[in-house]
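re the bet — no i am not wrong, look at it urself. input seq straight from the record:
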Amino acid sequence: MFKSTYEAITKGNPMWNSLSVPQSNLYSWDPKSTYIHEPPYFKDMTMDPPGPHSVKDAYCLLNFGDSITTDHISPAGSIHKDSPAAKYLLERGVDRRDFNSYGSRRGNDEVMARGTFANIRLVNKLLNGEVGPKTVHIPTGEKLYVFDAAMRYKAAGQDTIVLAGAEYGSGSSRDWAAKGPMLLGVKAVIAKSFERIHRSNLVGMGVIPLCFKPGEDADKLGLTGHERYTIDLPSQVSEIRPGQDVMVTTDTGKAFICTLRFDTEVELAYFDHGGILPYVIRNLIKQ
């Protein structure tokens, strides 16, 4: 039954068969599409791995407490009419009634990046009790949507990190909970603990996971999220060990030791390559 069905799969739908198909071995990206967009994961990729990256004078994009789930992080549900994603779609001629959901537009990284940390129930300590998908742009003190603040940092060439409590990334595994922060320019997440799969996904996207030492967290260390953070790592991956201690320093003079949550040599290899995607592509090309 399987063979008989799929032998004729290209013959039974005239409308499908009449679609115009470009004669190319590569997918022809439509720059006007708001559903499918070429992601930047391989932009400017070279055959040589970039090597480990440190974090220099990073601003805190978000300061969380415990139990931030992948539902808080990932783009999900309907697209709010005033959100950065809505603005993006409106600028491209999409009517509000046609916004659809983040899930339906998960093939467009521009929409999904704008929907990262866009949960209306997000509790960010930088907002002093206000709930919602915004944060404080530390250099100016402006309250902005998380995406807008992240883009302002990126435009200025400034790294960002996320502070978090226990069980960061808990809940169901969602790939966009790691892809989204990477696209926003987040270089590291410093948490009390991580959900197992989410930590692995962050590693896969080249984001550094760090854990506070037992008994410590941002509040106990007196960190408000208004500091600038520096995480020094060796420039050669061979000099980094899974689970080693790493010193984090701030511009206020506070310093603390974290555990580097690259747990295996393979994860260090991903980090050396800038993430699992360029790692896989480089290895495929070499075969």
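see?? The mean pLDDT is 95. told u. also The first strand starts at residue 55 and ends at 63. so pay up
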